[in-house]
Amino acid sequence: MLLEVNELYRFYHIEDEETAALRGVSLEVEAGELVALVGPSGSGKSTLLNCIAGLDEPDGGFVDIKGERMTRRSEKARARLRALHLGMMMQSGNLFFHLSVTENIRLRMMLADRRDESRIRSLLSTVGLAHRGDNYPTQLSGGETARAGLAVALAAEPSVLIADEPTAEVDKHTEAMLVELFETRKAAGFASLIATHSEQLARTADRIIRLRDGRTDND
Ligand code: ADP
Ligand code: ADP
């Protein structure tokens, strides 16, 4: 099991108001599986992905990535686990704006103790950005930004990839390219969990997990 999410709860408190963003969510993603996470806005998708990434701490339950506990660990331990085994494409973006695309990929690899310039070049060409390595994120179109984000997410060959609406702001051509890259990862035995509204992506997925009001709703 590459990703195990067990009985996750997350409550947000704003003044006297309590929102239960996650109410006992459990799921598993195996090696070689591409799982689509779908659900209406506010159903808890981003909260779930943030808890998996160790960027948010759940109030109950646990997350294991490649058998290692992500939840209730020190910030340092979570950052290490993220760096080694997790690739993320989040809505906030995963590019540093003061670094070129090449430098972003190189930094992500260094965080996982890897150094391989030829891999950087091959990643750039895989996502169709061979000519954009020296550009800064502000010089990229929306579609190119998403593809650069994926190149960074995949830089350290993460066992588990999570993505939050990766195709939300891209054209059809880029959407098709992202879907194809997610399929390639599946064939290579990695696990992906992708929150999406894309029908093309949902059709490609091995399974669809539906979230509604912070609960899975699969039957
Ligand atoms: P989705 O990604 O499916 O749109 P979210 O995980 O963003 O859902 O939100 C789930 C619920 O938690 C919503 O009711 C949202 O308003 C609430 N929520 C999310 N993040 C916060 C936060 N930082 N503070 C307070 N409430 C939040
Ligand atoms: P998209 O529809 O994918 O968002 P755009 O219309 O924004 O595409 O961009 C089209 C082309 O113009 C892309 O190749 C992109 O790299 C280039 N481009 C867009 N903005 C800039 C910029 N600020 N500097 C350099 N090139 C840019």
From TrEMBL:
<dbReference type="GO" id="GO:0005886">
    <property type="term" value="C:plasma membrane"/>
</dbReference>
<dbReference type="GO" id="GO:0022857">
    <property type="term" value="F:transmembrane transporter activity"/>
</dbReference>
<dbReference type="Pfam" id="PF00005">
    <property type="entry name" value="ABC_tran"/>
</dbReference>
<keyword id="KW-1278">Translocase</keyword>
<comment type="similarity">
    <text>Belongs to the ABC transporter superfamily.</text>
</comment>
<keyword id="KW-0813">Transport</keyword>
<dbReference type="InterPro" id="IPR003593">
    <property type="entry name" value="AAA+_ATPase"/>
</dbReference>
<dbReference type="InterPro" id="IPR003439">
    <property type="entry name" value="ABC_transporter-like_ATP-bd"/>
</dbReference>
<feature type="domain" description="ABC transporter">
    <location>
        <begin position="3"/>
        <end position="219"/>
    </location>
</feature>
<dbReference type="InterPro" id="IPR015854">
    <property type="entry name" value="ABC_transpr_LolD-like"/>
</dbReference>
<keyword id="KW-0547">Nucleotide-binding</keyword>
<dbReference type="GO" id="GO:0005524">
    <property type="term" value="F:ATP binding"/>
</dbReference>
<dbReference type="GO" id="GO:0016887">
    <property type="term" value="F:ATP hydrolysis activity"/>
</dbReference>
<dbReference type="InterPro" id="IPR017911">
    <property type="entry name" value="MacB-like_ATP-bd"/>
</dbReference>
<dbReference type="InterPro" id="IPR027417">
    <property type="entry name" value="P-loop_NTPase"/>
</dbReference>
<keyword id="KW-0067">ATP-binding</keyword>
<protein>
    <submittedName>
        <fullName>ABC transporter ATP-binding protein</fullName>
    </submittedName>
</protein>
